[in-house]
Amino acid sequence: MTQPLKDILVLDFSTLLPGPMATLMLSEAGAEVVKFERPVTGEDARHTDPKIDGESIGFAVLNHGKRSVAIDLKSNDALDALRPLLEKADVLVEQFRPGVMERLGLGYEAVRTINPQIVYCSITGYGQTGPKATAAGHDLNYVGDAGVLSLSRGPDDRPTMPFGLMADIGGGTYPAVVNILLALMARQKTGQGVHLDIAMSEGAFAFAYWAHAEGVIAGQEIASADSRLTGRLARYRLYSAADGRQIAVGALEEKFWQAFCDVIGQPQDLRDDWVDPVACAAEVARRLGRQPSTHWGPLLMAADCCCSVVKTPAESAADPHFTARGVFERKLDISGREVPALPLPIAPQFRTGAGSVGRAATLGEDNARFGVDPRKTE
């Protein structure tokens, strides 16, 4: 099958995570992505640990398969050097604070004058407008402002950190990709491009849809860890086995809960976790703590009750289920070493071969290809 984004040209002015992951997804679906970096040092992510023979693994994981052009966007001739690419580009992704691209002469209105059909995607923490538009922030700040952190913050003396970058990826990367694809579809009908304003903090709201229903619409007070999905009930919690491994109990439905209780021998008078959730959870914890995870894992699997042993990332990569589905078959070349590429939610039929090996371009590797003279931009 022909890749759906074949012949789509994407100009990537983003750094770190949200934008680079979004353009990686577009690349995986066939788009040609040209990544612009400052001369000499490149983007900061190139220098982050861990590394393989001096090459950043994190950078390679997010930027393989892209072109690299080194250019000083502050130089007087930058716009002239980029004009040929701007004229034929389909998508532009940028991740600066509001106003920065305008100061560089590369704001949406300026670019639209050159190319009215371009889909121009701006990813920021708080959006292009509003009182906090120019405020600095990272994922932790965005999910905090979206009310997500307050739902399960842990004890005061040891606050719980989020396990994933919900705002960066769920509020930045995914909305960017979805809206870029929608904009490309709309362009087929109208012939016009659009400016997409992606605010990571706003995208984080969707991760706590139930909190929106309870806390915003119904106006209920939601204390930390006091919801059915954040630890209030015994049937949806993490517990420790005797070997210190955690058991994820997700038995929300009654049939799953009763099956789980049967496995661990939970007494009938302590099965109603709505009546006395504290006593019920304490007994579950006591019983699971009697045996190691190796004992519980097979029993819970056989009971098919939405309960499982929590895996490490390395264990997940070796899981027979994911292996059978080819989740880690796609390979990445980092300094000559073949390693698994990051699994992305792009359907296999839209990508190149599963075993194809990609790599991250060296800084400025494609300057000559696109006629950008690095000597003029240093």
UniProtKB/TrEMBL annotation:
InterPro entries per record: CoA-transferase_III (IPR050509), CoA-Trfase_fam_III (IPR003673), CoA-Trfase_III_dom3_sf (IPR044855), CoA-Trfase_III_dom_1_sf (IPR023606)
Keywords per UniProt: Transferase
Gene Ontology molecular function: any one: transferase activity
Pfam families recorded: CoA_transf_3
Top-level lineage group: Bacteria
The protein, known as: Crotonobetainyl-CoA:carnitine CoA-transferase CaiB
Taxonomic classification: Bacteria, Pseudomonadati, Pseudomonadota, Alphaproteobacteria, Rhodobacterales
